[in-house]
Amino acid sequence: QVRLVETGGGLVQSGASLRLSCAASGSEFTINDMTWYRQAPGMQRELVADITRGGRSYHADAVKGRFTISRDDARNTVYLQMNALKPEDTAVYYCTVKYYIGREYWAERSSWGQGTQVTVSS
After folding, report:
1. At 24, phi and psi to the nearest 5?
2. Three-state DSSP class for residue 59
3. Which of 4, 42, 89, 114 is most open to solvent, judged by the fewest CB atoms within 10 Å of its CB?
């Protein structure tokens, strides 16, 4: 099982920047997709950004042009650079990865982090 630890959340003012990190640890794993979700109070969890093993990325319309997802495979870490933050970005941010163990590429698994709180004040 891959364990994920997210860091980088906090309380900032509107217009500020934050960078979230999500580091994966475990044994003999290979990560495919790495994804950030967020969940605001009383709202459903929504996809924020995704990046494939090949580096192809997707950003939700709500964050496009402000947030950038990236990954460092040597560190098994995914990042979310968040610029020009708005109060509506306030949420708990979760990372999730799809991975396989050893050479079992057909048996893809997933893990979720515990979440990190991002609060943007107006």
Report:
1. -100, 140
2. strand
3. 42
Alpha helices in 5-115 (DSSP H): none
In 3D, which of 21, 27, 33, 15 has the Cα closest to residue 89?
Answer: 15
Which residues are registered as beta bridge partners of 95? 36
Tell me how far the alpha carbon of residue 84 is from its chain's centroid: 17
Please answer whether residues 78 and 93 qualify as being in contact, where contact means their C-beta atoms are separated by less than 8 angstroms: no
- Dmax over CA atoms of the chain, in Å, equals 49
d(CA 113, CA 38): 12
Distance CA 58, CA 76 (A): 19
Residue pLDDT tens, the chain, 122 long: 899 999 999 999 999 999 999 999 999 999 999 999 999 999 999 999 999 999 999 999 999 999 999 999 999 999 999 999 999 999 999 999 999 999 999 999 999 999 999 999 99
Residue 11 has which token pair?
């309380």
